[in-house]
Specification:
Layout (H helix, E strand, L loop, with lengths): L6 H7 L35 E2 L6 E5 L21 E2 L1 E3 L15 E6 L17 E9 L2 E6 L4 E7 L3 E7 L6 E6 L11 E8 L5 E7 L6 E9 L5 E6 L4 E3 L13 E5 L2 E8 L5 E8 L3 H10 L4 H16 L2 E4 L2 H14 L4 E2 L6 E3 L5 E3 L6 E2 L1 E2 H4 L3 H8 L2 H17 L8 E3 L2 E2 L8 H10 L7 H12 L7 H7 L10 H21 L3 H10 L7 E2 L4 E2 L28 H4 L7 H8 L2 H12 L17 E2 L2 E2 L18 H15 L15 H11 L1 E2 L7 E4 L6 E5 L5 E7 L7 E7 L2 E2 L4 E3 H5 L2 E8 L23
Helix pairs in contact: 4-17, 7-8, 7-9, 8-9, 8-11, 9-11, 11-12
EC number: 3.2.1.-
Keywords: Glycosidase, Hydrolase, Signal
Protein name: GH92 family glycosyl hydrolase
Amino acid sequence: MLIRLTRLAVAAGLLASTALFAQRPASDPVDAVDPFIGTNGEGHTFPGAVAPFGMVQLSPDTHVGPARETYDWASGYRHEDPVILGFSHTHFSGAGHSDLGDFLVMPVTGDTVPLRSGDATTPGFRSHKADEVASPGYYAVTLTDPAVRAEMTAGTRVGVHRYAFPAGKAAHLMLDLRSIIYDYPGKILWSSVRIRPDGTITGSREVRGWATPRRIFFAMRFSAPMTGHKLVSTEENILYKGFKGPGRGPETLDALSGRALVAQFDFGLLTKALEVKVALSGVDEAGAIANLASEPGDFDAVRTRTRAAWNAALDRVKIDAPQPMRTNIYTAVYHSLMAPSVWGDADGRWRGPDDQVHDSAGFTMHSTFSLWDTFRAEHPLLTLIQPDAKNADFVNSLVVGQKASPFGILPVWQFAGKETWTMIGYHAVPVIADACLKGIVGIDCAAALKAMVASADYAPYGGLGDYMSLGYVPIDREPEAASKTVEYAFDDWAIARLARTLGETAIAARFEKRAQNWRNSFDAKTGFLRARKADGTFRVPFDPTAINYGSDYTEGNAWQYSWFMPHDQGGLFRLLGGDAKAVAKLDAMFDYDNSQIDYSHAEDIAGLIGQYIHGNEPSHHVAYLYNYAGQPWRTQERLKQIVESQYKPTPDGLAGNDDLGQMSAWLVFTALGFYPVAPGSNEYVIGRPFVDRAEMTLPGGQRFTVVADGLSDANRYVGRVTLNGSPLERSVITDAQIRAGGELRFTMQARPNTSWATKPSARPFSTTRYRP
């Protein structure tokens, strides 16, 4: 029986639960997920089939076009689009940049088969859509033009299509090696396709795109024999003659290579649905064939395994909350578990940034690291809800990526094993330090520290040479200098934390000093972080609301970046003049009147609440900063404002790009009542819960429960907090306290508690302890 999870079906079918877990709805966690959340608006998610952290992310593409047109279709799909071009095997979930869309497949019926997808004026194999449904690991849609019901499922390295063709119509399948989501001239450097004697289709392509060059290979098998085929190069208009009839000799081998290939596979009149099983590899065709064999079974077998895998992964965070919130949170957990994606083959081989083939030697290689986004909450969340072995895979993948890098530095924004050099900082550092400091087993933290230091000392990268000599990045030599200065300083603090723990005192002392470099770009007179020139002067003119790409800040302005010293908020508050002035500045940020400001030129600026921008990451920790000024009830107010305005269980339910799970991880943490403001501190800052009850199964098997007594729209404030029955007087909970298991209980009330966690000793970690 098909599980059809349109948004309306989810809304109608799920029960709100505020009872104990023994009384929870019997439905599986996958039934609470709506993969269509974020597929419209700014979310950039996709609804297709993927296993947890799967290499194959099989989903419909509704638009490809020139680079200038692809931002809104960064995942290849928008829910509002009426037409599907086909189903490709690689996608990003919520990225702010587009690429991928490898090996587009589309069913066609009838005697005339077009070789292109077509457009609004030119006929092609694209089709209008109807009756879309999706759940984790499964997607289905009716293609109304060929009258085909299309279903998708995926394992870790395989994707399986199932097409129910109409009776009496000849069935065909198109394989388009030309299509790519980020479409511009010269995109396909080379591609190939061949039909092997046993009927297996294999091929590859090398792509010029965001990460250049990128190689990807595939192997494909059908559940029914072909009755004919065509392999065509549309670039040179060369047609390789296919064959007709029920079979061919085993000696026959059809192959074609070029830069604009499309293949047509014919199946005649089918009496049952056609299944198409596809495996990917970053290494070679042999790797793709081996990956195909590594996950046996037909469509239903793969779907059943993947559904079970999703149930197990999602069930590590059991949620009781009213239905809309429960759907939001479970979908957020789902989106948090899609990347980093597996990149190593089943035999352990993987292709690195040096374009050489390596062996992972005992762990599973992962890629798709959007580190500027995900170091903040996504990776800290995974350390709690994924096994140590999985988190060790992530860290080990980063470390071996540094060894394979031609520049000897850790990944910055990497996918398919290739570096894009997108965004700033060396944020693999806090991911690694956070995992090591939390005691994740399976990591050589001493070797990881060496990789971290090598990245932080690589002078040619992003103005690091000037940063090391001047103590800041100068804007007249390097763009986005103010942002780079503070982000480097935070990463340096993470290095110092790990070095101090490992007894590397000289390294610790050097990077503790560097971690204070944020002060060198902070202008105490204006109260803002500002860009300085090499001569030491601040650049003028200065407008704290200005957002211009390539200027002083990265995807933001002075309002957002003036709070980015997560490791030293106490030091910042001193410079601002104390608690009262810090709170006043926070309020000014949230309450700012933007009516006279136009940010339409800035794609990533979405989800504005004054000058707080929830749709982009630099703001994500800011609501929690009232705690550092001894006013946690103000954090509670702001969190309610953010959650209610930025998240909905609808296709346009994400205010900004999900960014490979960061927007989602923020919601998961916030719903549980705490957030990792400074990954590497081993502390979580307490906010307020948005669930009646939640239970996390931790990597060691312990269970940690969050309970919110009296939670309602009226009872929005925290009156009292207890940990395992004892009053919790600080506005933080430590990682060790969570990992030990137990219960964090909030008593909610209608009025703010202005005496809880107000003393300096009750506030979160800061390098500089502020004393009012």
